[in-house]
Design brief:
Number of strands: 6
Length: about 210
Amino acid sequence: MAIKRIAIEAVELNAEGVDERFGLFRSPRQASKQIEKLADHYFLCHKLLGLESDTRVENKKPCFRAQLKKCFGACHGAEEAAAYNQRVNSALNNYQLKMWPYPGAIMIEERDMQEPDNVAFHVVYNWRYIAKLTLIEDLYDQGYQLADTHLQKSQARNDSQQSSPSTGDDRFDLDIYFILVRFLVDAEKMKMHNLKVWPLVHCAIDI
């Protein structure tokens, strides 16, 4: 059995095999710092994690941490690969990237619990923030409509309300990812914050 190794590299969220990646960090340095913390907690090898300069497979010398009893010796054959890999899996368990859980774009309805008439609609797709809307009808301007058209037809436009769609930057943003993943994968948290998700579909716009 091969010993698991970790490498730090830049990836695109839509890249093939992204579900096999772990973690999102702002810089290689930030990623290295987090790996160091995991190594301390799970007694992982700095050489196998790419944190120690000599990472050659053929070099069976103990890493520096093995001499300090902070590595159980997977780097020089003192620990079986299966045991080491199990700890690596445990260390990375909470860092696996979350795949987009919907077939397409969604609209998040955010309604103030104290003032129910105060509502905003956020268009999101693949962890990217597309736009903030004040009227559901403004979805058409973004090229979408609700998959459940019954709700859209039941929403009467208030002519006294000013339509003010706010177009966002649809490039991937790490802060937005962390905010969205904290809520969208937790139904209880969504309910607690009075958030509701509506699936969207693309619509054709006639001129």
